[in-house]
Design brief:
Dihydrolipoamide Transferase, seven-stranded mixed β-sheet, five-stranded antiparallel β-sheet, OB fold (Dihydrolipoamide Acetyltransferase, E2P), Chloramphenicol Acetyltransferase, 25% helix, elongated, alpha+beta, 3 domains
Length: 415
């Protein structure tokens, strides 16, 4: 019996997923457990394994399709089985014609009078359903998505001459963009557009959430410099002892945040219409930048972990994020977020609060700076921390004391 390949639900609230890539082509053999396709939700990109061994057949979704969860997009045929046999089992008898329709309705005229409509949303745009649209140009039926038509019109491209890569040869948005590659089309004579890059579901959701956060949460910002001499020494000792893994700078910061949040619960909370929810658990989110967008895997109950255990978890989560192996359980339930851009040479920056959390800590690079040590001038490895907090929940004095405690933990090496 054939095994259905469906768009999986990777989260409770997930309604759709975008197919990014097939690792196998139709007709190729697959082995159960090997990677079959790559999909993207609003929060992560994940590689999906084959549910069975056999031959991939009846593929109905193409890269770029946004598909409702639970919809079948292919089948895996058992050894010796062919696609027509599988289809026959699913539809053993043809559907009867509606009463009153005779032989005339069964005559094919080169183009079906009611061509099928794809159930998928193309290019990650909600409501942009692929539709069969009939053109009278040279009496040839032209299949094109609404997105493809809009882009073609904007770029002055004749869509009827393009070869489509979608179902039944439909012209998709990416086909139009590919045709326009290397060309700059003047729009209105003022601005020349090289290309239009469609938003991925992840980037679209991140944009929506960050916009809402800035519009609804009254942010305020506090910055503080931290002397990282002791942290640098402890990392050097860990390397000499061949500890594995050696805690990263970010691990030390996460560790200090987890300890400080225990003393400042208002920063481990969320503002709601019914009041401020103070969380019992301290679940730290660490922002990880991917090409597709930003993901925030979560270290649960971070305040109960040793520095070594925390370092192991962060390394595992970072590896999963880079390999696109994160699942909803890995990035749900965060109560406070740390965003570190120090590895990119950034000295300091201001982060947007990740809703519904009430605060986020932005971390810059460690750089050697001239500072005062009593009456002396010395050079120390310094780092700037910037706290963004929701003023509906956190007062300035509380935020300042929170930063002071993080500073004290890092500078004294009380880790």
């Amino acid at each position: 019996m054939p095994t259905n390949v469906i768009m999986p639900a990777l989260g409770v609230a997930q309604e759709r997923g975008t197919l990014l890539h097939w690792f196998k082509t139709e007709g190729q053999s697959v082995t159960k457990g090997e990677r079959l396709m790559e999909i993207e939700t609003d929060k992560a990109t994940v590689e999906i394994e084959a549910p069975a061994s056999g031959i991939l057949a009846n593929v109905t979704a193409s890269p770029g399709d946004e598909v409702p969860v639970g919809i079948k997009i292919a089948v895996i045929l058992a050894p010796g089985e062919v696609a027509s046999q599988a289809a026959a089992r699913e539809h053993p008898h043809p559907s009867p014609l509606p009463k009153g329709e005779g032989k005339t309705s069964q005559v094919r005229t080169g183009a079906e009078p009611n061509p099928p409509v794809s159930p998928f949303i193309k290019g990650g745009l909600k409501g942009d359903l692929l539709a069969s649209e009939i053109s009278l140009r040279d009496r040839t039926r032209i299949l094109a998505s609404p997105a493809a038509k809009r882009i073609a019109k904007a770029k002055g491209i004749d869509i009827t001459v393009l070869k489509g890569s979608g179902p039944e040869g439909a012209v998709l948005a990416e086909d139009v963009l590919r045709s326009a590659a290397g060309q700059s089309v003047s729009l209105g004579g003022a601005i020349r557009v090289k290309e239009t890059v469609q938003l991925t579901p992840m980037r679209r959701i991140v944009g929506e959430r960050m916009t809402k956060s800035k519009q609804t949460a009254p942010h305020f910002y506090l910055s503080m410099d931290v002397d990282m001499t002791e942290v640098t020494k402890q990392r050097t000792v860990a390397k000499e002892k061949n500890e594995h893994p050696v805690p990263s700078i970010n691990d030390f910061i996460l560790f200090a945040c987890a300890r400080a949040l225990s003393d400042f619960p208002s920063l481990n909370s969320a503002f709601t219409d019914h009041g401020v929810q103070i969380y019992s658990d301290i679940n730290l989110g660490m922002a990880v930048a991917l090409d597709e967008g930003l993901v925030v895997p979560v270290i649960r109950n971070a305040d109960r972990l040793s520095l070594s255990d925390l370092a192991k978890q962060t390394q595992e989560l970072a590896d999963k994020a880079q390999k696109k192996k994160l699942f909803p359980m890995d990035y749900e339930g965060g109560t406070f977020t740390v965003s570190n851009l120090g590895m990119f040479g950034i000295d300091n920056f201001i982060a947007i609060i990740n809703p519904p959390q009430s605060a986020i800590l932005a971390v810059g690079q460690i750089s050697r700076r001239v500072v005062a040590d009593g009456d002396n001038i010395v050079v120390r490895p310094m780092m700037t921390l910037t706290l963004s907090a929701d003023h509906r929940v956190v007062d300035g004095a509380i935020g300042a004391r929170f930063l002071q405690e993080i500073k004290q933990i890092l500078e004294k090496g009380d880790l």
